[in-house]
Design goal:
The protein has about 130 residues and is an all-alpha fold. The protein has one domain. It has 4 helices and no strands.
């Protein structure tokens, strides 16, 4: 049972890493568009050049909103998956499992779940 929960936790973390990679690609695309608009700025009449900062600012705000919605606040996530991250995710997955029906457990699996429950109850930092 613990192995299944751990595998599911690792797959959840991998999914999160794919989201981070996708957001990096979106960031490169938005940055390229902003640089293109900044370059076009020099082809415009000098009086109209400051107005090109409006769409560049809008692009920056849109990217910030998308990043915050998909990944949360920027610069908080660590790219490496550590054992501590895996254990936190295992506990989250276990709590989801706990709410569903758990039948057909062997004695070893029940002991693993009881041990995991003790870790959850004793350690408040795994919330």
């Amino acid at each position: 049972m613990y192995k299944e929960v751990r595998d599911r936790a690792i797959s959840n973390l991998e999914r999160k890493r794919k989201k981070v990679r996708a957001m990096q690609i979106v960031g490169v695309i938005f940055g390229s568009i902003a640089m293109f608009l900044f370059g076009i700025r020099y082809l415009m009449h000098p009086i109209d050049r400051p107005y090109m900062f409006i769409p560049i600012g809008i692009i920056a705000v849109i990217y910030s909103i998308i990043h915050t919605v998909v990944l949360g606040l920027p610069f908080v996530n660590n790219e490496d998956i550590s054992e501590e991250d895996i254990e936190r995710e295992v506990i989250k997955v276990f709590r989801r499992y706990k709410t569903s029906e758990l039948d057909n457990l062997t004695l070893e699996e029940e002991l693993e779940l009881k041990q995991l429950e003790k870790v959850i109850d004793e350690d408040d930092e795994y919330v």
